[in-house]
Amino acid sequence: MRPSNQRVLGFPCLVCAAACVLAPTGGATVVRAQELDGFSPAPGKGDVALSISFDSYDEFWVGTEKVSVPDLGTVDSNSLSIWWRHGLTERLALVATLPYVDVEGDGLANLSDSGIQDATVLAQYRLWTRESGARHSFVVAGGIKTPVGDYEGDAPISIGDDTTDVLLRAVYLLQSGSFYLSTQVGYDLRSDDAPDGLPLAITGGWSFGRATVSATYSRYFADGGTDIGDPGFTFPSNKDEYERIGAKLFSRFNDSFGWSIAAFTTLDGRNSGDTTGYSAGLVLSY
Questions:
Q1: Tens-place pLDDT, residues 39-57
Q2: Are the C-beta atoms of 194 and 164 separated by less than 8 Å?
Q3: What digits encode the pLDDT tens for the residues 180-206?
Q4: Could you give the CA distance from residue 102 to residue 179 in angstroms, rounded to a whole number?
Q5: What is the pTM of this model?
Q6: Is residue 263 a contact partner of residue 29, using CB atoms and an 8 Å limit?
Q7: Where are the beta strands (DSSP E) in the chain?
Q8: Is the separation of the CB atoms in 206 and 185 below 8 Å?
Q9: Averaged confidence pLDDT in the chain
Q10: Whole-angstrom distance, CA of residue 161 vs CA of residue 21
Q11: Which of 198, 190, 194 is nearest to 219 (CA)?
């Protein structure tokens, strides 16, 4: 869907280009398929999660300079996501996610877009596990993220980049008593003119009773790309980078049902929004 007010085509390049940062990253959802924690379900077991998230920003980075534009206003992104993880063998599992996203700005440009975004499917394999006072695991994963809905990625506002990407991940998981530490690195091989990306996430969590509280630090680096306003740039080609911290609380009603709440904030970025978000979700284990 293109902007509802076509007068935006006459606005300065900065206003139009700024809208590209609306493409939601889903950082507040229960778990993103491309962000693995290293845990693997038993064969035939798994989890299904339904989450709703709310993200917002009124300032964004043009290159490395933070600005605000009245014509864009405050940008809100709401999404409803379904996430699924299923164990195939003791070592092999599938992880998938599919979000519906709605984004809009309350500025004079009256920009909005909504629809089903991108489906992500990953196969994760636990290469080894060692016990030496603590439990150490190393997991690798690979998969694909591809558009499912019919949307335009190279537009002043869009729910995504409309690219098909190959995702590669490696996760080290340390478990010691009620504490765990998960470190993920990866590489995104992106299609068209979107720059490849390098995601990093470090999560530490502590369980007590039926609850687990965790904190996450994440970075995303773009391997090349353009800055907003560069000659000949496209919206997917921007060097979109961010640094974020977040926290989550997960608890179970019983062995089959659980719930979660989460929040995150952006510390720094490049061609991205200074975004804060939160989410809530329900989890079914089978």
A1: 999 999 999 999 999 999 9
A2: no
A3: 999 999 999 999 999 999 999 999 999
A4: 36
A5: 0.87
A6: no
A7: 46-57, 60-62, 65-67, 75-87, 92-105, 112-116, 118-131, 135-147, 165-176, 179-189, 196-208, 211-223, 241-252, 257-270, 276-285
A8: no
A9: 88
A10: 10
A11: 198
